[in-house]
Amino acid sequence: MLRQARLKRDSADRFPALEPEQWHTAAALVGQIKGILIAREGPSTQLPQRILDDENFEFRGGSRFRRDAGHTRHQDRKMPRYLASLSALLTHPA
Fold this sequence. Notes:
A 3-stranded antiparallel sheet has the order 2-1-3. Residues 71-77 and 79-94 have low confidence and may be disordered. The protein is built from 3 helices and 3 strands. By secondary structure, it is α+β, with helices and mostly antiparallel strands.
């Protein structure tokens, strides 16, 4: 299951564009909130390190912390060599 998040009802006033207590994929919600913050504060705004905090959001599924943002060499063996190289370039650009 993908990591999911929902806005707590008590925090609805901080994020009026979001419907509280509705589950969304965490990644989609992060993108939406980043867009809201940038639109509200301008493109030079300093975004918080953690967009979805425990104070305002609840979570379920997935892993709380990712050990590696990329993939493992074990996964490379499962995909064609050219796709493994492309995947490595996309996740770890030079």
